[in-house]
Amino acid sequence: MDRRGTIEKHDPFEIEQQEWKRRQSKERYKQLLTIVSPIFLLLLWEVLSRTGMIDTRFFPPPSAIIGTLFEMVINGSLVKHVGVSLYRIFAGFLAGVIPGIVIGLLMGLYSPIRHFMQPIVMALMPIPTLALLPIIIILFGIGDVSKVVTIAGSVFFPVVINTAAGVMNIDRIYLDVADNYGAGKLQFFYKIALPGALPVMLEGIQMGQAIALLTIVAAEMMGATSGIGYLIWTSYKAFLLQEMYVGLILISFFGYLFSVLLRGFQKKLLPWR
Amino acid sequence: MKGKIEIQHLTKAFYKKQGSVTALDDISLTIDEGEFVCIVGPSGCGKTTLLRILAGLEQPSVGDFNIATDRDDRPLQSMVFQERGVIPWLTVEENVAFGLKMRRLPKNVIEERTTYYLQKTGLARFSRLYPRELSGGMKQRVSIARAFANDPEILLMDEPFAALDEQNKFILQEELLSIWSETKKTVLFITHSIDEALLLSDRILLMSSQPGKIIKEIKVTTPRPRTIEDIRKDPDMAEQFIKVWQHLQKEVQQSREQNA
User: Fold this and answer.
1) Which listed site, A132, A208, B61, B167, has its alpha carbon 20 to 30 Å from A257?
2) pTM
3) Do A17 and A68 have their domain in common?
4) A192 touches chain B (CB under 8 A)
5) pLDDT tens digits for B239-254?
């Protein structure tokens, strides 16, 4: 921008202030775009569906799906499925995250444990837990336990790998500082290893959370009598697509909710970043 | 008189398949109580290795050293690390208190000493901040405060000002001298800056590289307290600078020819 002509008329702060205001409104515009994008998609879907441009049988309008959602909430059929799924997700998540953290920390801290565990983890990781579902069902039945085990098995791997990597990637100089200032084993663990590994560990937990949701739907489709996945599968088989979409929307909603919650948790735990 | 730090025939070799390196070759030296000694040498001359051995972070291959102790309740040594040595997940205050907490001293002692050195280094206002929010100079003040608060028998400093800009470096050097003059601790300070060594130390040890040997010892007799201006103005110091530089230059050239 050519500002030579402005030297006499304006003071520099005024010009910078205008520049600043312009940047602010640009930022607001970007925020607006973020909010608008899902609404735009839903509106497009609604219009296309209502005008018959896409097949209403496969793509019922979002307004109808939301209507169905409310009906299902009111008649109580939804609460049961959601409650059961959430219980399985939480139990499975914890059953995967806790041993993941413990074993990951041990692997990061003690190299013999790492060398022993690494090949086992590497070999088991590529096997989809869902492929083991038939065996898990034989062992644990079609109730909650088999779902919890399936989720735990899927969540465990990203957590264990990230936790071990988190410990190993702590800058060597902090180990020297701890050593030089005489930190004992426990002090080293609480003051250096655990907080130093936390950022990478939490990324693993975030990944585990996403995997838990992906897993629950599939697990409940195969051998279950309740849950969101069961709802999606039976609705699909009965060609009740509005009910099926309700299930999908719920998964999407909980995925978003958990991500936001974990991000908040992360900020609380890592004030130093 | 027996020295505060006695190093006897210390040798450190690093074994590698491609060829071993003698980082330190039969080093013997004595540092007196309350003395401020700088080791100056080109990078890779083994001065950091010597410091790490004294800091207990590495074992010598051959030889021994001894740090004389006055009191049982003091740690042997504390190190002022380079800028990255401040722990990012601890606040300024927690960083300064780190050594004291590791030694499980009583709470009131920890608090008293931490507050004292936060005040001394001008960090009191920043005590609750995390290092991320500090400038390089401020971070180094944290590192210095942490070492002094620990009240060790001797202080080891590993190029603490190497990453700072020149103005900040001058300021911190003078601050370090003022804190040090209060406690009169024995200091072993490593640097590659001749100016820094002339300003800070009572004695400069010049080190050669590969093998790492102490090739020359220079006493700095300029009276204290010293400021950066004194050093720059003093014609004797200018002469000293040239003397040190000529020795180092020869050294650097030689090692270059060897490597060529």
Assistant:
1) A132
2) 0.86
3) no
4) yes
5) 989 988 988 888 778 7
